[in-house]
Amino acid sequence: MKEAIEQIKAELAALKAKTAAEAEEARVKYLGKNGKVTKLFDDFRSIAPEMKREFGQKLNELKKAATAKIEQLKEEVSSSGEVEASGNDLSMPGDRLPLGSRHPVSIVRQQIVDIFRKFGYDVAEGPEIEDDFHVFEALNFPPNHPARDMQDTFFVSAGHENPLLLRTHTSSIQVRTMLSQKPPIRVICPGRVFRNEAISARAHCIFHQVEGLYVDKGVTFADLKQAILLFAREMFGPDANIRMRPSYFPFTEPSSEVDVSCNICHGEGCNICKGSGWLEILGCGMVDPNVLKACGIDPNVYSGFAFGMGIERIAMLKWQVNDLRHYFENDIRFLKEFETSVEV
What's phi and psi for 20, nearest 5 deg? Predict the structure, then answer.
């Protein structure tokens, strides 16, 4: 055993390695499961008891020397920058991971927010799980209004006086704002909303809205029309025009649907606008006096207007997306089409 120990010491002193693979081979040769040093420890069991102390110390010293030599070889190979025998240069930088892009709904939402911020609007937010008062009652929905029916609304808890539900519009944020602030109020309310509808190319049970509210003394329908026209020209181009059609909403009176001139055919008629030259973009109207009263605002002193639009709808018109479901499928090929739409 003494001769074997001296021989291994001599081998370790002369040991060299040019690559990390060779250094690993040396480790296995001497310190592996069947390595030369490991086998000496196995042979140590058969040595006479009176000699175990002497050879035990020598074996421990040999193992430490072998371990130190292997570590030295690994450090030398690493610092030399040699390419491994496999042909892979581990010192080279790795491949860059592909970066994602912003979702088209997020892009349009931010564009809408930025436009109205230029007009002096603040951004207000509220909870997605709301109660009946903020979603319906304060907004002048009669008790028998169809929107209160289970087929339109996702109720979280029903059967009591003020049930909880997933908000069906962000008008609930307008109510919270009017209850917590005194006029003048000028806010936009972006957020996600939920309605119990069948999913199709033109409808979804989850979508996003931006609603706006302006309450002050002397606010008129002319102010509303001018605000919508300025928005349309900021979003769809300086040549955009709007038309307003009478409509009905429980929380505004008078109410109107707003169309914008088709930005594809410029009013000539195409398959996007179905030959009409116009595209519907939002609903709006003057805030109903009953809504002001419910929020503690005197309708004899203040007036206001409100408007609301679907973000997916605006994005569909802006980029001619023909299926609403694309926004929710997380197809990276679809999302990457909008990388150049973000202004840096």
Answer: -65, -30
Q: Is 187 helix (H, G, I), strand (E, B) or coil?
A: strand
Closest listed residue to residue 235, CA positions, set 108, 123, 103, 339 = 108
197-221 pLDDT, tens per residue?
Answer: 888 887 889 999 999 999 999 999 9
* Residues 65-77 pLDDT 10s: 888 888 888 888 8
- The 3-state secondary structure of 55-83 reads HHHHHHHHHHHHHHHHHHHHHHHHHHCCC
C-alpha to C-alpha distance for 68 and 105, rounded to whole angstroms: 60
Whether the bond between 254 and the residue before it is cis, its omega within 30 degrees of 0, is yes
CA distance 289 to 252: 8
Q: Do 159 and 132 touch, CB atoms closer than 8 A? A: no
Torsion sign, CA atoms 165, 166, 168, 173:
positive
Tokens read off for 253: 């009176």
**Vertex 299: Cα angle to 142 and 307 (nearest 5):** 65
Q: Element (H or E) spanning 114, and its range?
A: helix 104-118
Please answer whether residues 106 and 330 qualify as being in contact, where contact means their C-beta atoms are separated by less than 8 angstroms. Answer: no
Closest CA to 98 of 341, 343, 336, 340: 336
